[in-house]
Amino acid sequence: MQSVRHSEDVHHQATLLQAWEQDYIQLHAGAFTGSLSTFRLGAARLFSERMNRSVLQTGALPAGRLAFGLPVRAGGRSCICGEEVGPNSLLVFSGRSGFEFLSPDIFEFLGIEIDVNGFADPVFEAMLHQLDTVLSSGRRSLPIAGARAAKLGRLLHGILHEEGLDLRLEELPAAATAFSRGLVGWILDMLQPAGTGEPGRSTIRHWDTINAIRELVADGQTCPVSVAELTVELGLSRRTLQNACQEVVGLSPVQFLRALRLSEARRMLQTDRPVTEAATQFGFWHLGYFSRDYRQMFGELPSVTRAAAAQTRRRLVSGR
After folding, report:
1. pTM higher than 0.90
2. Residue-range domain boundaries for the chain
């Protein structure tokens, strides 16, 4: 479900994130304006909070919730639980001790909240355990590479502002589970240090790994979109996956996954399935980015593929 709410009072702003027990204190003089945009699907809630004045925030989340996010605009210094927030930092708000956060003037924050309770999907449970371990490491400001931070910001912003996405996804089976798994997987991937892999394994021995990845994507029930999902599904290390993909197909695991997902989405479009269904079935949650990546890969828009396939079927039926 998508929603946007606005506020002209700092104390009212503090209540907009429901279930967060928090208090806001405005520090700099001037009329306050703020807003909160949210998107909820399955276990995940995404939100974008904007405020024009520096605020001291204190609070805590209910047990069983992971909450973290990325500042994408800041007009000055910020600090979380005594740690200076550097550029390209993932900020952790969940934890038993609660949080204290100083946000600057002209501030925008893209946040993620995940309910970790009650899942029957063992792969997702394992991924949540990995994420909880990383987020509970003790640090509240986790540095990530600039390119990864920019990618995460574009992804979250795109989902939050994709008009009508929640209504389209409600019509698709298993969308909530797939979305939550994909989101957690992306975060785990971005928090991993870049590695060079281990040398020495033969290309032939990697074919089984490549085929296993291909079969997971082709199955389409819960399509993996991240290396984190693959490590759990296949029981392999990131290093092994990196070596297999690089040595066999000359791509990183992320690039190989994207190529497979685009290929399966194209196959689905050629059976006259809607573009939204084909995209989200294979983990492309922002339709604008899907169209861009699809055109880069195949030289045409998804709608063109679907229309051409429909025209071919009509010719076959008419015998022309």
Report:
1. no
2. 2-166, 195-313
